[in-house]
Design brief:
40% helix; two-stranded antiparallel sheet; binds zinc ion; alpha+beta; Creatine Kinase, Chain A, domain 2; 12 strands; 462 residues; 16 helices
Length: 462
């Protein structure tokens, strides 16, 4: 199979992505995966990060040391680079250590296992509604913390009943953390419902396909969720709107502290939070901002920016769809360093880089909107949204980008909260979810156009 990005080299990396309302796969060659920032961020540890650590001369497999928790030998691990459980790191510490150091460029966890933050003030609005013009290019922020339990194999090695038990145990630990959760068994959802959770930033694209046994906790405002039996045992995820990353960080941190305090978390003083993905070892945290960058995209300067950011430990990639292109000029900026700096440092570094990018976008946009071609695109987009009877998801995403730019710089008058709502909730699976069933694409496009007209121009839907 050829790489979908370069169409030249063989694809050896298969990422679960959401494409056109379905859970699909994106196939990439290692070079493109690296260039697009997919190394270390997503499931399956796509690279053979550990070389062959044992020689085949030790043919008597029974004599090889095995991890007591999952039964894997070092040879099993080095063949696939997939560890069976968090304890593998400790059992094979001596052999894996040098490769982990090389992988991270720094080999010691420098974070705080207890972050000790207090929960932010409750705000019942969805994250994309927590914004105003001062947020500018910053659409939202997302923080995730992965946590595993010692003495327990990773979910990939569990059956459905074992996953259910683990999900149950983790959920009950989080019950009195001060949040009210709705609990969902991923196996009980229609595929479009699971995909729509990923479209709306409630779960990751990988988790949308987690299936029976995997559990999900969702807060009432849907800005906080906990994925149970993801790649790791638990992944806590919080989103906040506009330029308020600290809100998401604090809200997710409270839950991680709660799990850590239980005493069963797989944590090592030197390696930090043990993760299924060796590249997340340490903080096992991702912190991202969602950035709307139409002017920088238009100026063609983003590829150079992305490559400079990569050297600083950040990846910039498309936030919507398959991630190969930045639909709607919407990008996700994410940290890649998880060792050698604390969770709080990683979050504040990301915040600083986010602010720089937003400032650059503002400077570029102020010039960009003086161009009559750009102003024309904005007004044509408004006209299409007000009169189209059918709107595809891709079309809407593109038009909303122009309209958001226009609204920010005084070319048209729309509420950013409403634009955010439309950008997040009207992807194909989202429209099916609103309709309560999987409907044909023409009906979806008609319903989407109606909703847009109603929300932006106050026209009644049928
Ligand atoms: Zn390629
Ligand atoms: Zn193990």
């Amino acid at each position: 199979m050829l790489c979908q990005n370069c169409q030249k080299r063989d694809a050896s990396i298969h990422l679960k992505r959401i494409v056109g309302g379905e859970a699909g796969e994106t196939h990439l060659c290692p070079a493109c995966a690296a260039a697009l920032g997919y190394i270390g961020l997503f499931a399956g540890v796509p690279f053979p990060v550990f070389p062959s650590l044992t020689t085949r001369l030790q043919s008597d497999a029974a004599r090889l040391p095995r991890c007591e928790t999952c039964g894997l030998t070092l040879e099993d691990i080095s063949g696939t680079s997939a560890l069976g459980c968090p304890d593998c790191y400790l059992t094979f510490r001596e052999k894996l250590g040098p490769y982990l150091s090389r992988l991270h460029g720094r080999d010691v966890y420098r974070g705080e296992p207890i972050l000790g933050l207090s929960a932010p003030e409750p705000d019942a609005r969805r994250w994309y509604e927590q914004t105003d013009k001062t947020a500018g290019a910053v659409f939202g922020s997302e923080v995730t913390f992965g946590v595993n339990f010692a003495g327990t194999p990773f979910p990939v090695r569990m059956n459905v009943a074992e996953k259910r038990r683990l999900a149950e145990a983790a959920a009950s630990l989080l019950e009195d953390a001060g949040e009210t959760f709705r609990r969902v068994d991923m196996g009980s959802l229609y595929p479009y419902e699971a995909v729509s959770l990923a479209e709306r930033f409630i779960v990751t694209p990988e988790f949308a396909a987690a299936g029976a046994g995997a559990g999900l906790l969702v807060s009432e405002d849907k800005n906080l969720s906990v994925m149970l039996c993801d790649e790791d045992h638990v992944r806590i995820r919080a989103v906040s709107g506009g330029a308020a990353p600290k809100t998401a960080f604090a809200r997710a941190a409270v839950l991680r502290d709660k799990l850590y305090a239980d005493g069963r978390v797989a944590f090592d003083k030197k390696l930090g939070f043990l993760s299924r993905n060796p590249m997340r070892l340490g903080t096992n945290m991702t912190v991202s901002s969602l950035l709307h960058l139409p002017a920088l995209t238009g100026s063609g300067s983003l590829p150079a920016t992305a490559s400079a950011l990569r050297k600083m430990g950040f990846v910039l990639q498309g936030a919507f769809g398959d991630g190969l292109s930045a639909a709607g000029d919407m990008y996700r900026l994410t940290n890649t360093l998880t060792m050698g700096l604390s969770e709080k440092e990683a979050a504040s570094n990301l915040e600083a880089v986010t602010r720089q990018l937003a400032t650059k976008e503002r400077a570029a946009a102020e010039k960009y909107v003086e161009d009559i071609g750009v102003r024309d695109r904005v007004q044509r987009s408004v006209a299409l949204l007000s009169s189209a009877e059918l709107l595809t998801s891709a079309e809407l995403t593109g038009l909303l980008s122009w309209v958001r730019l226009g609204a920010l710089y005084g070319l048209c008058d729309f509420d950013l909260k409403v634009l955010g709502d439309l950008a997040v909730n009207l992807f194909p699976a989202g429209v099916n979810t609103l309709a309560g069933q999987k409907i044909p694409s023409v009906r979806r496009d008609a319903l989407r156009a109606q909703i847009v007209k109603a929300k932006l121009f106050g026209e009644k839907t049928e």
